[in-house]
Every structure is written in structure tokens, then in C-alpha cells.
User: Fold this.
Amino acid sequence: MYDRAQLHEQYKQRAKDEIFKKEFETAVEKELIARRDKANYIFAQEDIEKSMRLKDHSAPQPLVIEGDDQHQTKKWDSLIKTAAYYVDRPNLNQERYQLRLMKQRYDELFTDSWRPPLQSRRDLVTWACEQRNSALAETHEPLNCAYNSLMMDFGPDTEGLKQKLGDIKGLWS
Assistant:
């Protein structure tokens, strides 16, 4: 027969098994109810609901630069800087993101509809410079719209990287 300690351990184990069994049955029942509820559920609804929770439905706010003059010179320079930090060879998602970013921040600079060339950084920076020069032609000195000049003035500082990486063929051309 069993002594008192062995019986105690058996009862203890049975109690644990019963607790586990009840918790397991409860979890399975909850899962079955959830699956039954989702039987007629369209998964696109879930994506829509998730995006609705994540989105802020307020109107996008344009970029405001403190101390900018009435001609918005600093905002035009910010447009060129944004273009200078654009990727060299963008994919379609990067083009969409950049267009949305630029429309949100800089739409008020343009009186007519506008579509920036997003196929390369070179095209975008040059376009932004030309737009700035035409908008501020009467009040400001035009910028030199040569790509290398714009990248030196508005683009990322690559001199530190050149020193670290050395002359890797094709990287800095």
C-alpha cells in the first residue's frame, strides 16, 4: 500500500491535472467561439480596422519653419534639402512615400498642380532648384542648379564617409 506522503503526492498531482484540464477546456472553448465568430469575417475588414486605429484622421499639417520670410525662402531651401536626401535609384514604394511627404510639407509653395520627377535624386534636386529659382526670381539671387553644387550645399556630408571607406569604385561618382 501507499504511505501517507505518497497518497498526498498522488492527490496533489490529480488536483493539478484537474486544474490543467479545466483551464485547457476553457481555452479551447474560447478559441472555438472566436473561430465561429470569424467564420463570416472578411480578413480585409481586419486590415481596415487596424489601419483605422493606427491612422490619425486629422488633416496633414504643412511644414512650418520659424523665422521664414514672406517669400518662404527657408521652406524652398528645405524642399531642396529633402530632395538631396532622396535615394539615388528609388523603388515604387520610395517614390510614393517621397511624393506624399513632399505634397504634405511643400504643397503650399506651388500655386498650380505639380508633379516632381521622382525617378532619381539628380532629377528631383535639379527640379526643386529650378522651381525655387522661378518662384523667387524677382526677389532673390538664383541658385546654381548644377547637381554637384546642390549636393555640396544641401546634400549629406559624404567627406567623412569617403575617409572611412576610401575610394570604392563607383561609390562617389
